[in-house]
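Subject: Predicted fold for HTH luxR-type domain-containing protein, 65 residues

User T.R. writes:
Posting the sequence so we have a shared reference for the thread.
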Amino acid sequence: MLTRRQHEVLSLMAEGRSNVAITEWLTITEKSVVHHISNIHQQLDLPTNDTDHRRVLAVVRSLSR
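User M.O. replies:
I've generated the structure tokens; pasting them so everyone works from the same file.
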């Protein structure tokens, strides 16, 4: 289950915002954004290879739950 903050980050990812834009919107560090995104990817059991667009997969997978 995603935390409230992870849902916020995921929503901003779904809007197409970059990590920098997410940091500015949520007033958190870029390191925190990267940490939240990594946790989102893990919790949604997304592949770790470089050929997949994990940001897009995260949004799609969260919508299908």
